[in-house]
Specification:
Elements: H1 2-26, E1 47-50, E2 56-61, E3 67-75, H2 87-95, E4 98-99, E5 102-103, H3 104-114, E6 117-122, E7 126-134, H4 138-150, H5 156-172, H6 177-189, H7 204-208, H8 212-222, E8 228-234, H9 238-249, E9 275-280, E10 286-294, H10 303-313, H11 320-328, E11 332-339, E12 347-355, H12 359-375, H13 380-391, H14 401-414, H15 419-429, H16 433-443, E13 450-455, H17 457-467, E14 471-475, H18 477-480
Parallel strand pairs: 2-8, 9-13, 9-14
Antiparallel strand pairs: 1-2, 3-7, 3-8, 4-5, 6-7, 10-12, 10-13, 11-12
Helix pairs in contact: 2-8, 4-9, 10-13, 10-16, 11-12, 12-16, 12-17, 13-15
Length: 482
Amino acid sequence: MNNARTIALACLALPAIAGAQASNAALDRSKVPALGKTPVLHLPNVERAALPNGVAIQLVGQHEVPLVQVTLVIDGGTRLDGMTPGLAAFTSRMLTEGAGTRDANALQSELAFLGAQLNANAAGDYFVVSLNVPKRSLGTALDLMADVALRPNFRAAEVRKQRDLLLAQILQRKDQPTQVAAIAFDQLMFPAGHPFHNPASGDSATIASLDSAKVRGFYAAAFVPERAKFTVVGDISAAELTPLLAQRFGAWKAAAPKLAIAPVTATAVTNDKVKLYLVDKPGAAQSVIYVGAPGVDRLSPDYPALTVMNTILGGSFSSRLNSNLRETKGYTYGISSNFRWSPVPGPFAVSSSVRTNVTDSSLVEIFKELRAIRDRPVDAAELERARNYVALALPARFETNAQIAGQLVTLNAFGLPLSSVAALGPQLLAVTGADVQRVARQYLPADRLTVVVVGDLAKVRAGIEALKLGEITVLDVSSIIH
């Protein structure tokens, strides 16, 4: 019986196999398939409302699946840290460690029962409390969200526990070369007083000073309704949503005078020549490399050209840097470049972990690629591939409820309308080779870069010095992470 069934299935499959073979025979695999016509990006409709206390609501109805994403954004974030780096991030961390009548375990148990996810964190310019939940459980899950956002416990014992865990994590950074390199790079690129100079999670001195009273006081002055906005995406209408939020957040009032968001007066460090900073990690099998310069404002009119240029240089798997150092040379598992887009302009950086014995060779290739994109015109095929790569990926930013909410939150942070996303596609496709070369020359100062290398200096220092790239300074890891 089983043999007969197998034979019958094989006979049924023969026509399909024959058809596939004929199709493959007609396919010319020596040519890249031509792209079809660029699809039109249809952006979702955004409805707007407000709670009785003035908290704004943005709603995007998505009714394909019975899920709702609720994101509460409160302006401020780590910009409010002041002289206590890590305070905002730690306060956000504590929100889900007990709220209302529940401790952390009870809170997570109820969320699991509801099939919901609830998270809280601090970004550079805002706090986020996000909830993803099946619609049938939305009301109960919003009760939990309201407790987390409005009634966190900050119990002394739990604050001490989370503080000690974080102190242990900070201590472990010294043994993590990627962490050391990233923190050192930011400290060198941005002076003291700049929001990016210190790690968002703080250092051992500031975290050790935290207690329940300090965290509670910061929360009361940072989490204020006049800086809050809800972004909701999912299977719900405004008529259903507004009463649900009003019931739980409509009476929210500030518990203390709000903290001022201090203006950023410190600017990124601009070198007059290439400067290299080496950090010793004896016995390291790899060296971690950062090469960068001051970045660009996201609102710059050069944003489309910079996006295409960076895609060619190191912003995609087929980029020049990755093709060279990974595919051709085999120096690394991966290398990338990026602009850190933020309301406060972040840096441009090339970063990678490479084999110790090719640290100097990797620097040679990185500098070669940085100079090449400045000095030589971009090939037409390479340009077209990069433009399509970024322009055709725009719709993927709006696939899920969480992605749509994330896009709206990001656009709000920059003061950009949703329509700017639709306008970006044609702008990207209009970037020319001359545009790419122009922004590369303007924003990639190949002769004034900051370079950080964390590795075994006994093995790599001589090779780096022989390159004569620029002035070399050796840093002690304890001066970076403390």
